[in-house]
């Protein structure tokens, strides 16, 4: 925007024999004479001169003439105003006739374009109304696809080749009733799995939404959102291709390719005029909510957040659902009826926080209260969080509330804190102490924050029974009771839930019951569950009896103590009748070893491996050839990652070519260990999702302790998010020398946070972490930090944490260099004779500080460990006590250890 200042200065101008003074104007600190000001006195003037030299009008940096046309004023000189050399009257008349004819033609074309644009917008609006009134609105309705890269239509020979291209799906924000006010959602798009199946399901619908996208593109809202509702924040988060200034032709070509593809796959040819869209935008067949619900199954959800397009469900005044970006979510929540809904809420003791959009309900809630609240939720009462705190409900009223919350409201989080449910005459049925439920798109995620009781399961079951739209059930394995038969029965009979996501799984029997049931889910994702080969072997047995599973995702495993379990899994998958897509993480692939041989067979002959992650391996060229075949020839492998693995440069080039040619849609080669990358990403996700997380009970408990004191936080059902509080309050501020965190729910994520806090810590001497879910991954972070920076910690308790021989390797590396640790508790883990060999040889030869070692309760420990233990006892001078009771030792083995105890003075063994 130019800065314009008008002052009373003037410029002398001569036209023929007349000299006049014309006022000048300041543009960007330059005094200028504007041509249009001269023409007001002398209309025929087109040129300004000095001494018969024609003056050029000022131009910008790109050489374009500035508007209005102007020259820099010249003080104390007279500028000549010149008219062009006149043409004959006949020439002038002919010239103006031509201009008039062209203007008439342009006006006609403009009228046609405007009329066509309006007609298109009217038709789009009609389609939007039909879509808007869908009774099932579980997923954003407006989406279209584009190829990721530009392709010439002539280079694509067959329909089959069209399906081999890499496509991405993009959503539109439903922020307006007017189609020209929509904008693309703030997300970089989702890669489409199996484009042929996707087009078969959504081809007709895509023809409609593609025309909506093309119309937005033609009027400018698509590339550069024109709506006054679209802020800079939204524009900055739009897909990268939208922000490129030279993308008009590229996007138009991609839209053309998709349209041709849709037409050709449907055996129809339609002509699209470049200046106007004549083709109808009405769909051949309407898409029902049931089909929309399956959309997510075709998308690569790289964020795993189930937040399609970063859009949020909101309810309008007339009870309809819209999916909008976060900014429009906040904008649309402010409407005339909100004050009325808030007033209704306050009449029965409810509280509403305008900033956080949180509602808190307390006390006894009557049928009238619940009915009033539910009506408000379905008519546009926009809230993000509902807290039920110290409430009591009739069970029927709770059913009604759950139904509205899940299926017909904008609520994204439900917090239950001591809710009593009664049946009739206020006779208590059960009490739920603490549970949080997250709703996002079609995902329902549950987390219990206190000790999980049977009553908590009952309210979860009641919640699941009211679900009509959520397809994904996401929960933490440590929240399952050993005998959760009621929940098991509910999940086995629930037909709405088609996807099961379990994190940190413990109860394999529970999962196997679900997998082998008649109503088993079609998609299962298991994260951080298989550090034991026995668990994976058990899963293999269940898969052999399953006939419904389509997608199996176990790619987010950090390591499997293999022992042939991966090979068994691949053999089972090859025989499975229904599984189409497997996301797999394989460790220790070496030239010609069993893992490599079995993988090569599957890659060459089967099509179920679509996503493959390889870690801690040496990659042969033969294995690369199998990967190329699976990706380029079978078109099955589309996603490939390598972590901490050895590949030569030629093989890397081959893989990069697969990515360039779009046989692979994702390729990553990292020198880091996967666990380091994964935990970093998860911690960032926790920060984003739980930025306002609090645990008042924990904070109060720590506040009661003194500086440099001991603190016991056992049995508080603490979770990974709580570790940030512990680090800040107990380690940094209170500088505690003794911390006990036993019998909680900490995983490797929480331990990684703790490990960071131990960097250069010089106060903590005793750390109890027993009976958590740390696993080998948590030991990795703990051992790393104790190897480098800690010189204070003396006692470390790690019993019952699912630690295997891999975790023992990390600890053995640590005690080679750590000269402070004196007591190490490793009881009730999954340590075998191999782990004992590694640990005892390290203590025997490379450690001089360990005084007490506890290995009690490791059932995999047998008489094969006796010789290793004896050698350690005989040669290490610092070790004074060894607990090895409740293992799998024979009486003869125990007797041998007893004898060695008698030969060493002041040494104690517990058998």
Write the layout of secondary structure elements.
Layout: E1 4-15, E2 18-27, E3 30-34, H1 35-41, E4 47-50, E5 53-54, E6 70-72, E7 78-82, H2 89-132, E8 143-147, H3 159-162, E9 167-173, E10 183-184, E11 190-191, H4 195-219, H5 232-236, H6 240-243, H7 248-265, H8 289-293, E12 312-315, E13 321-324, H9 326-332, H10 338-347, E14 351-353, E15 358-364, H11 367-377, E16 385-394, H12 395-407, E17 413-422, E18 428-440, E19 443-448, H13 454-465, E20 472-476, H14 485-492, E21 499-503, H15 508-515, E22 523-527, H16 533-543, E23 551-553, H17 565-575, E24 581-587, H18 594-605, E25 609-615, H19 621-633, E26 639-643, H20 649-660, E27 666-670, H21 674-689, H22 696-703, E28 710-712, H23 722-733, E29 738-740, H24 748-757, E30 766-768, H25 775-788, E31 795-797, H26 805-817, E32 823-825, H27 833-846, E33 852-854, H28 866-875, E34 881-883, H29 891-903, E35 908-910
Parallel strand pairs: 1-7, 15-16, 16-17, 19-20, 20-21, 21-22, 22-23, 23-24, 24-25, 25-26, 26-27, 28-29, 29-30, 30-31, 31-32, 32-33, 33-34, 34-35
Antiparallel strand pairs: 1-2, 2-3, 3-6, 4-5, 4-7, 8-9, 9-10, 9-11, 12-13, 14-15, 17-18, 18-19
Helix pairs in contact: 2-4, 4-7, 11-12, 15-16, 16-17, 17-18, 18-19, 19-20, 22-23, 23-24, 24-25, 25-26, 26-27, 27-28, 28-29
Distance between the termini: 85 Å
If classified by CATH, what would the architecture of the largest domain be?
Alpha-Beta Horseshoe
Number of strands: 35
Going by helix content, strand content and strand pairing, the class is: alpha/beta
Query: Biggest β-sheet: count, sense, barrel?
Result: 14 strands, mixed
Helicity, as a percent range: 25-40%
Strand order in space, largest sheet: 14-15-16-17-18-19-20-21-22-23-24-25-26-27
The CATH superfamily title of the largest domain: Ribonuclease Inhibitor
- Overall mean pLDDT stands at 83
Shape: globular
Number of self-contained structural domains:
5
* Spans where pLDDT lies below 50 across 5 or more residues: 223-227, 268-286
Number of helices, where a helix is a run of at least 4 consecutive DSSP H or I residues:
29
CATH topology of the largest domain: Leucine-rich repeat, LRR (right-handed beta-alpha superhelix)
From the alpha-carbon coordinates, what is the Rg to the nearest angstrom?
36 Å
CATH class of the largest domain: Alpha Beta
Sheet-strand content, in percent, reads 15-25%
